[in-house]
Q: What sequence folds into this?
């Protein structure tokens, strides 16, 4: 059952990109902390989204009915995790990941009002975690997270505004607890990830001035993950996750951009999100295991950002694991259906985005030593 147990924890995240807000690349998994003994893991993920819509209002000189073209660029990320069992009761882990990212570029020549608009957001995070086992069943853990963030954008339909930031490095933390019953492969883990506040040196160019500088505060959202798994029959495991993200506190508001738009944010979200994952894993042979899972994130309604218009998502995925001695290789494939969304300009509907999809792929290689 141990091979399948390790499989299930990571399969819930295999290929899981394009999450809440359209900028979340991973769900901040700490699965490596629960691996047996000493362990190192390398991961790779990519997503190929297809996001387009139709203009529903006349925004001079663009006309109703113009197509936006495909605005979402493909994204990739890599990750590394290293875990050490220091004693029978103490584990440590170091995790490198890319929690947030966005590559948006509206094509030109389509007649759409946002043609030529672009936005890029990049992040990197390193998390150090320590875990203490009070008993064979109960443990607690805590960690420190160092995160870097930077962004740039060009919004031609707001007086040709451009903006970019320098990279800021800031710190946050996580705390959590787990209950385990190894004889039935049961594990329930609750993890809190704090918000991280960034003070980004920002440069803007617009009719208000060229190269205007300011400090922009951006808080990446706090989140809670509830991960669970349990054996339901020999060689069969049910696993899943419930994730809450405090997206209503996330806001990107450059100073001059706000002045030009009457106080509007470049990117913000009105509501928090809940994401639900549920799957089943099955050990097929001594070396091979197969899993399938579904993901559901309900839409929140209201206007969406022109820099990522979909609202919510539904996804299905499959993953396969090959294990040989101390080596484990996992591959996951996920198909995503995004919920319909409506964007706005000046409080009026601007674009309708329907029937958008994405395909995501994840690959992990792990070694026990």
A:
């Amino acid at each position: 059952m141990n091979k399948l147990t390790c499989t299930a924890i990571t399969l819930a995240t295999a290929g899981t990109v394009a999450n809440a807000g359209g900028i979340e690349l991973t769900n901040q998994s700490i699965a490596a902390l629960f691996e047996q003994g000493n362990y190192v893991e390398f991961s790779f993920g990519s997503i190929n989204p297809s996001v387009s819509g139709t203009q529903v209002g006349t925004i001079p000189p663009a006309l109703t009915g113009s197509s936006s073209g495909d605005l979402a660029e493909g994204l990739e990320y890599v990750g590394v995790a290293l875990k050490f069992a220091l004693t029978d009761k103490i584990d440590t882990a170091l995790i490198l990941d890319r929690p947030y990212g966005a590559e948006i570029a509206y094509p030109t020549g389509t007649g759409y009002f946002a043609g030529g608009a672009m936005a890029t957001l990049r992040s990197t995070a390193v998390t150090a975690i320590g875990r203490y086992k009070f008993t064979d069943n109960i443990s607690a853990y805590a960690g420190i997270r160092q995160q870097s963030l930077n962004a740039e954008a060009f919004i031609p339909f707001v007086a040709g505004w451009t903006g970019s930031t320098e990279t800021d490095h800031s710190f946050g933390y996580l705390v959590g607890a787990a209950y385990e019953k190894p004889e039935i492969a049961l594990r329930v883990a609750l993890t809190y990830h704090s918000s991280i506040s960034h003070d980004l040196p920002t440069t803007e160019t617009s009719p208000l001035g060229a190269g205007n500088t300011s400090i922009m505060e951006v808080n990446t959202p706090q989140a809670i993950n509830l991960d669970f798994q349990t054996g339901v029959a020999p060689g069969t495991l049910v696993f899943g996750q419930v994730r809450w993200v405090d997206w209503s506190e996330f806001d990107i508001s450059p100073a001059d951009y706000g002045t030009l738009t009457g106080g509007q944010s470049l990117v913000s979200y009105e509501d928090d999100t809940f994401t639900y994952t549920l799957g089943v894993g099955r050990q097929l042979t001594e070396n091979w295991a197969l899993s399938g899972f579904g993901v559901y994130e309900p839409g929140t309604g209201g206007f969406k950002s022109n820099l990522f218009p979909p609202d919510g998502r539904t996804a299905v995925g499959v993953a396969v694991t090959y294990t040989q001695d101390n080596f484990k290789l996992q591959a996951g494939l996920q198909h995503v259906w995004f919920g319909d969304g409506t964007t706005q300009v000046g409080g009026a509907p601007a674009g309708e985005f329907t029937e958008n999809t994405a395909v995501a792929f994840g690959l992990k290689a792990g070694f026990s030593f």
